[in-house]
Amino acid sequence: MKLYFNPQSRAVIAKWMLDECGAAYEVVPIDFTKREHKSAEFLSINPAGKLPALADGDAKVFETGAIGLYLADKFPDAKLAPKVGAPERGRYLSLMAYSIGQVEPALGDRLLKLETDQHRGWSDYETVLDVLERELGGGPYFFGAQFTAADVMIGAMLIWQRWLKAGAERPKLAAYVDRLLARPHAIKSGN
After folding, report:
1. What is the pLDDT of residues 167-183, one digit of tens each?
2. Is 2 strand, coil or helix?
3. Which among 123, 150, 162, 166 has the fewest CB atoms less than 10 Å away?
4. At CB < 8 A and 24+ separation, what contacts does 116-120 make?
């Protein structure tokens, strides 16, 4: 497997997933200043010309959520996803979609100091945090003691909130971020 990577991109999330899976992979550095992400070769892997992108033999996967889903299913022994057919699979898929459809754009609005326009399809960041607190429940992770790809996807956004000082952290979510950052493969500032 090859992960096309730049540390100033969402590819750090894909790398975290690969490391949590225990996958063997090669990092292919992409230099944004040389516009390597717009080369014909790279566009054959990700037609959007963005990171992350993953090549696994003939399989080409782009977009962070898709890479997370792909890897969690490819490496079932890592137990980063409920099994297909398990009752909790629907909630897992919902949280994966929520991470990219709600959490990330709401955090973007927060970082850019934009008022969230309800017509754009996502909630304001405070509402998103309310949902995450409820979904986290009393467990250390979204699925109790079981760490999943949903923790990688949502956790990365909350870690970035901390690093970028995008508002006060809520105690429950701050403790969750502390647990994530204590994991050996968690993203690190400057990764």
Report:
1. 788 999 999 999 999 99
2. strand
3. 162
4. none
Distance CA 174, CA 171 (A): 5
What is the per-residue pLDDT across 113-170, written as a single tens digit (0 to 9) for each?
888 888 888 999 999 999 999 999 888 999 999 999 999 999 999 999 999 888 788 9
Which tokens hold the place of 65?
Answer: 């959520």
Measure the CA–CA gap between 114 and 119, rounded to whole angstroms: 14
Return phi, psi of residue 116, to 5°.
Answer: -70, 125
* Entry pTM: 0.94
Cα–Cα distance for residue pair 28/142, rounded to 1 Å? 31
Dihedral sign of CA atoms 138, 142, 148, 149 in order? negative
